[in-house]
Structures are given as C-alpha cells and as structure tokens.
Amino acid sequence: MKGTRDLLPAETGLWQRVEDEARRVFAAYNFREIRTPILEPTFLFARSVGADTDIVTKEMYTFEDRDNESLTLRPEATASVVRAYIEHGMFNQGGIQKLYYLGPMFRRERPQKGRYRQFYQIGAEVLGSDHPTIDAEFLEMLVLLLGRVGLTEYNLLLNSVGCPKCRAEYLKVLRQELERVKEKMCGDCQRRAGTNPLRVLDCKVEADQSIIEKLPRILEHLCPECRQHFDCVTGELQQRGIPYQITPRLVRGLDYYTRTTFEMTSNVLGAQNAFLGGGRYDGLAEILGGPPTPGFGVAIGEDRLLLAVQQAAGLSAGDALDVFVAWMGDAAHEPATQLLRALRREGLRVESNYEPAKLKKSLGVANRLGARFAVIIGEGELASGRFQLKDMTAGQQEEVEPARVAAVVKEKLQKG
Ligand code: AMP
Q1: From the CB of 106, is ligand 1 less than 6 Å away?
Q2: b/e string for 100-113 if b means 16 or more Cβ within 10 A?
Q3: Pick from 399, 403, 384, 400: which is nearest to 338 by CA?
Q4: N- or C-end of the chain: fewer Cβ atoms within 10 A?
Q5: pLDDT higher than threshold 90 for residue 54
Q6: Distance 99 CA to ligand 1 centre (A)
Q7: Which of 23-27, 46-50, 333-337 has the lowest mean pLDDT?
C-alpha cells in the first residue's frame, strides 16, 4: 500500500538496536514505558493537535465505527499519553511523571524518501513540571542518545512560542502584518491569516518563504516570564556544552505547544531533514479536561533517524552470526547438539547444519551467513575429544576442548 512498507530482517536488526539504545538512555533518566492504543476517538486529536492544523484537516485516517463513533489511527502519541495520564489519575501520584513510547503513527501525507503514511516514532514526555531544567536536561538526554547511535552531525533548532498571554499579543501584531502581505501568499496562508495565523509560519510553499522570513518574530514579543524561562533553558544548554541555533520560525505544526519548541535536523537527510521535534505543552492537560499540568516532550521520527544513522555509518545491526557448528556423520550429531545448546545458553548467535553434511558444504553455508567462527566436529574430533575452532576471517584453526568453546569464542569476540 502506498506510503507503507515492510521492514525486512536486513533492516530490523538496526531498528532493534536503536530501540534498545533508546530504552537504555530513557531508563538512565528514569523514564518508564507507556503503551497506549493505536485507535483513539477522533476528537482527542482535533482538540489537542488543533482543528486547523495540516494533521487534522488533511492527514488523519478517520473512519466511523459500526456504532457511529468517529475513530482515528493516531497521527502522533502525545495526545494519547496525556489522555492516559488524566484517565488514570497519574497526577495523584504526585511529583513528575516521565514516560516514553515506541510505535507506529499514521498520516496521509504525500509519500517520499523519509516520509511515509505509516511511520514510527520513539517519544518521551515529562508531565508535572515547567522548570526550565527539565527542558535542558531532556535535550541533554537526546544528545546522549544520538551519540549512542553514532550520530554526531546534526543541528538543534530552538525557539519559544510563548504562553497564551504573550502569544495573544504577538498574534495581534502578526495578524496586522499578514493583512498587509497575505494577498501575495498561498491559499492556505490567506485562510490561516484569519483563522490560525501561527500556522502561516509552518507553510512550506516556496514562493511564500521570503515573505514569512520578514514577518514579526515571536521571540521579540515574549512576556517577561516566558523570556526568563527561555533564557534559563539556553543558559543551561550552554552550561552543558550543547550547541543550538535560535530559529524564530520554528513554531511546529501542532497547536498545543507553549514556550520551548525544538527540532533536530540532519544535512544527510535531504528534503525531509527533521528527524525529531518537540517542546513544551503546558496547557494540553487542561485542554483535554485534566488538571493544569505542564509538560515537555519529543517525538523522534524513527524512520528518519535510521536513515541518518545509516548515512553516517553509525551504529550497525550487530546481528552477524557468531558461530556455525559444522558436524559430519551421524555420530557427531549428539555432541554437536550439546555444543549448540551450550553456546546458545551463553547468548551467542549460533547456526548449524540440520542434516549430516560434507565439511566444504557446511563451511560454504557458514561463510554465506557471515559466521565469525566455525566449530568442526568430524570423526577425528570425536576420536581426540577436541573440536576444531576455525576463525572464518583470519582462516586460522585451533583445537579446543568442547567445554571451553564458548569461553574461547567469547574472549575472541571481545578482542574483536
Ligand atoms: P511531529 O509529530 O510532526 O512533531 O513529528 C516529529 C518527527 O516525526 C518529525 O521530525 C519526523 O522525523 C517524524 N515524522 C513526522 N511525519 C512523518 C512521516 N509522514 N513520515 C516519516 N516521519 C515522520
């Protein structure tokens, strides 16, 4: 189906490793996993993402269920996480909740490289504090994760979209200016100039870009509290040695953001160069009927992160075969079975021939599977009680007692 794809074993190894690193880094910052349904009532997204956003007006997979309820395949998961937080009274647990998720999202966009209709996000959310240290520490966590997956070249774009108070003031100024210039802009911008002027800043139409560049900037209209918050975030980023670029147009395509917004982009990705985005959403819980609860989060576009990691030759799949056990003749079957079991119990990735086979054939299979080592068990080995361990890259061979094979292989693998 258009915009969807199968992820085959040649790719899934790397996906798993990236996800493992994400889980490890999230755990280090005390985040715990939340799993929410892929199907949600449509109003959840209309209310949170915003009724006049691209996602809600053009991109959602929405259908009527048999009992006439309108359902939507989630286009993003922050709304679901906040819904769950409210529904389960997680605010009653006191303190800060740190949650993460992984999974597919659905948007009916025009498919191209790095843009799919079913795509995957790895996301994390902090609920319950508006402290600027949360923002900075969160970005530090992302920097650590990117390092772990081998991505070092990227840009952190940063902005503040203020709070409802200062945004209202800014929107007045923006509307006035848009009245002057909107005639020259695209149809969507002309409409949004009246309905949701902030969204004009996300417009991707080429001809509008030079006009948008000259529009008033929200950073110059922040109230003193929002200004101070932003200055604290940038101050803490500097303390932590995390470079960033202030990007006044970065308002993100969803209505729920307040104060800090950010994106990370990579030059190796082409047109769809943002591989993650997020920010603060201090008003979202209230919009969804919960108690006032500040929040901060990220959604990492896993498909694009993977593309960037591959381009940068970062983390690799790590699913190469450790050992191929090549046995010959019926008498070798049982000792081979015992060895296979012992190696697998040690966590090694191991394969073997299921039927007696000639050595040459088995070594050919071992080569094709990319095995680092082969263990050879034939008549001679059975007689001597020592197996041959062959290094498939170096070509060297040595005799090893059956009970020591796992330890010797592990030692050699560690040496690399
Ligand atoms: P958003 O939820 O729109 O803030 O997007 C967060 C991240 O998800 C983006 O930076 C992209 O990396 C990724 N993303 C969004 N839409 C798509 C899509 N249609 N296909 C692939 N990745 C996407």
Answers
A1: no
A2: bbbeebbbbbeeee
A3: 403
A4: C
A5: no
A6: 19
A7: 46-50
Does residue 45 contact residue 56 with C-beta atoms inside 8 Å?
yes
> Looking at domain 323-415, which of 3.30.360.10, 3.40.50.10300, 2.60.120.1440, 3.40.50.800 is its CATH number?
3.40.50.800
Distance 11 CA to ligand 1 centre (A): 20
Smallest CA-to-CA distance from 387 within 400, 374, 371 is with 400
Reply yes or no on whether the pLDDT at 348 is more than 90: yes
Ligand 1 atom 21: residue of nearest CA: 115
Residue 394, burial from CB neighbour count under 10 angstroms (0-12, 13-18, 19+): exposed
State whether the beta carbon of 50 lies less than 6 angstroms from ligand 1. no
Domain(s) of CATH 3.30.930.10: residues in the chain: 9-163+223-313
Position 374 scores a pLDDT of: 98
Q: Is the CB of 343 under 6 A from ligand 1?
A: no
- Six token digits for residue 102: 């992984």
Quick one: average pLDDT of 3-17? Answer: 96
- Supply the pLDDT for residue 319: 87
| Ligand 1 center–CA 415 separation, angstroms | 40
Residue nearest to atom 14 of ligand 1 (CA): 301
Q: How far is ligand 1, taken at its centre, from the CA of residue 200, in Å?
A: 19
Task: Give the pTM.
Answer: 0.93
| pLDDT, tens digit (0-9, with 9 covering 90-100), for 122-140 | 999 999 999 999 999 999 9
